[in-house]
Amino acid sequence: MNKGWVPAFAGMTLLALVSPASAQDKPVPYWASIASGEAMTRTGPAKSYPGTWLYKRRDLPVRVLKRHESWRLIEDSDGARGWMLVTLLSDRRTALVRGSSPRPIHEQPTATSRIAYTAEPGVVARIEDCNAGWCRIEVGKRQGHIRIADIWGVSDGETVD
Q1: pLDDT for 25-58, tens place per residue?
Q2: 96: which residues sit within 8 A by CB, 6+ positions away?
Q3: What is the pTM for the complete model shown?
Q4: Given strand 94-97, what is the order of strands in its sheet?
């Protein structure tokens, strides 16, 4: 019986567990997103601290403000802060549509280009890239360009590749 697959499988499993944490070892502050459907913040950087907020929205963008071992102090779009395990975070760049009315998603990164569709405030989009005040985003299977000013999850003047 060939047991060569056991070490290979163990190595791949270990790599999958280590990758999210190592991907979050960059200088703070930085943008991240919630990686799972349920992610708890706590008052301090350990499971022994009380839980403060349970996020139930995968891909929700967050700003990482501090690092402490395998914990990250995050801030959400409402300004709420809490400590979250790094394994519950992803490097995937996402954005939250903000404002009080639907925002136009253009076919091209210009205000004069055709509006492909609109996105309601609170919609979460995946960011493909950002440059010169615009981001190319994906909402479900739809793509388009939105002004950085209309989203939370990208810093003013930031370029995302």
Answers
A1: 789 999 999 999 999 999 999 999 999 999 999 9
A2: 60, 61, 77, 122, 123, 124, 125, 151, 152, 153
A3: 0.83
A4: 115-119, 103-106, 142-147, 134-139, 124-131, 94-97, 151-152
